[in-house]
């Protein structure tokens, strides 16, 4: 019944000239997929641990810009303080414009940011710290992955100065905004 048929062994299959390149491609693809899955699992685990550690540790001072709006215990922004911030502000080193249209007593800001086209302002909050008004303006748009400004109003010079936190390239820039026109 079986004519000169012999059983194939594993070494016959592995060393078979016709199947070697094809099998090698599949084996390499399988190894690549398994390695990718392992890397993804390790990164996911690491990021989850990092998030849990960040949630349990106190926020650094720099992160205070992302704090909740001012509360009654912190002091609501007085109307006169809010009115001084409303207006159009141009960054001194570029043609970026911050428009502050209104500020609610709880610190929520209605704002627009132009570079020179509009960039989505995802969050804008004003707080009153001892003797000074501080703003946090967060941008979320194409090329703006949550980058944000932390600015303090200098009433003597009528300027907003502070830091631009560029999260896209992980750099910080000292900036100054000057008022465009008068209210």
Structure overview:
Helices cover 27% and strands 37% of the residues. About 14% of the residues have low confidence. It has two domains: 47 residues; 119 residues, Beta Barrel (Lipocalin), CATH 2.40.128. It is α+β, with helices and mostly antiparallel strands and 183 residues long. The protein has three helices and nine strands; from the N terminus they run H-H-H-E-E-E-E-E-E-E-E-E. It has a nine-stranded antiparallel sheet with strand order 4-3-2-1-9-8-7-6-5. Strand 3 and strand 4 form a beta hairpin.
Q: Would you count the extended β strands for me?
A: 9
Round the Cα radius of gyration to an integer and report it: 29 Å
Strand order in the sheet with the most strands: 4-3-2-1-9-8-7-6-5
CATH topology of the largest domain: Lipocalin
Number of helices: 3
Which regions contain 5 or more consecutive residues with pLDDT less than 50?
Answer: 50-74
- Class from helix and strand fractions: alpha+beta
The CATH architecture of the largest domain can be named as: Beta Barrel
Secondary-structure element string: HHHEEEEEEEEE
Mean pLDDT: 76
Judging from the principal axes of the Cα atoms, what is the shape?
rod-shaped
Distance between the termini: 102 Å
Q: What proportion strand?
A: 35-45%
Main sheet attributes: strand count, strand direction, barrel closure: 9 strands, antiparallel
Q: How many distinct domains?
A: 2
Helix content: 25-40%
Provide the CATH top-level class of the largest domain: Mainly Beta
